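Tutorial, part two.
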Amino acid sequence: MEGHPPSAADVRSEQDKAAASADRAADEASRRAAPNAVVSGDYPSLPQGPALTSGALVEAIVRMAKSFETRADMAPVHVAQVSGLEVTPDSQGRRTGLQGTLGAGHYEFAVWKPYARHPGHTIELTVRPSEACDLSFKSLHDPLVAGGFGVTKNAVGFKPTVYFERALADGLGLYVVVSTDKHDDPRCVSRVKLEMEPRDG
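Running the prediction step on this input gives:
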């Protein structure tokens, strides 16, 4: 519809298409890269962190998702306090986070501003290679639903993604966007992104 900004669903659809392509490219790059390197677009590498368990990462994600109420809560210093992860800036100061070993694969945990004037931050956990299935869907799904998050899924034909949403004050919503291995009965998670944006309607 001309003259109208795209809806959140339209934006998500386009992001999913781009993310599917990026996931394929990143998985291929991670197969070729050094075993302890996580490739992430044009950003410099994040500082090396400790080996972590999937339980520790799930606990950090769930704790953040349940406690964040304002955009200020998603600033790197507060993320470090709530998650318990010792995040530090990359060599260019573009992202704050860490990366390390996770089971048979690797993780990358990052916090950054989507663009300079954005009022908030994006938080993203990426697990590679996705086939290793070091992060289970159920481990995230169950505590988020128990914490009051609504759940929606992408339609078949799009990248398998599950959206968890919690309404906040001032018309904002906290979104936990989970990239999964399949639409029906997803088992494995390759990416978890936390965003705080205006809610539709």
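Confidence is low (pLDDT under 50) at residues 24-39. In part three we will examine how such features are distributed along the chain.
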